[in-house]
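pasting for ref
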Amino acid sequence: MATLSRSEILALREAAKAVAADKAAKVADRADSRLVAMGEYLDSKNCQGALEVYRAVEAMNADERRGLEFPERTIFDIITKSMNYGGFPTDKQVEFIAKLVAQIADRDAPKVPAPISNVRQTVTGKILRTMVFNGYAYGSPSVTKILIRHADGWTAFGSLPGNLYGEAGEGDTISFVAKLVEGDRGAKFERPAKATVVSKG
């Protein structure tokens, strides 16, 4: 049986390294192409910003990922699982991802104080979240509360104006007249009236 020389052994090792590097490059290219396709898909669903969150999490080490908050962790998990199975998130998942991206933007936005005043004023803002609570008395109808964000960045919490039930929801921009007061967890608006939908989200 012939014995390989040292130079032949080194040449085989280099060839093996080249094959491994070529395979790794092809895997990386496929991953990049899947990411491009995922980004185009999410953009087509008006879900901008999700891929940026995914890339940021992908670049983190294990310790950093363990400290992630729910929105970033969930967006990363949904996109990762979709790509592993060679597909895309469902419409419901995309809708959920979009809400999580909005939550991240709201959380990280500069905190601007609301214009608290005893005088009723016109309030215009985008509905970030809607929450439905049971009525205050037995048999009374449920109450919808909303969190809105003004264009200046401040947020306020209060009841959805009665005339906008069934007309406005998350993502819509509305305008109404109300008193802005300081609440336990930030600004809240009281007795909204003359409400209109400025634009649909």
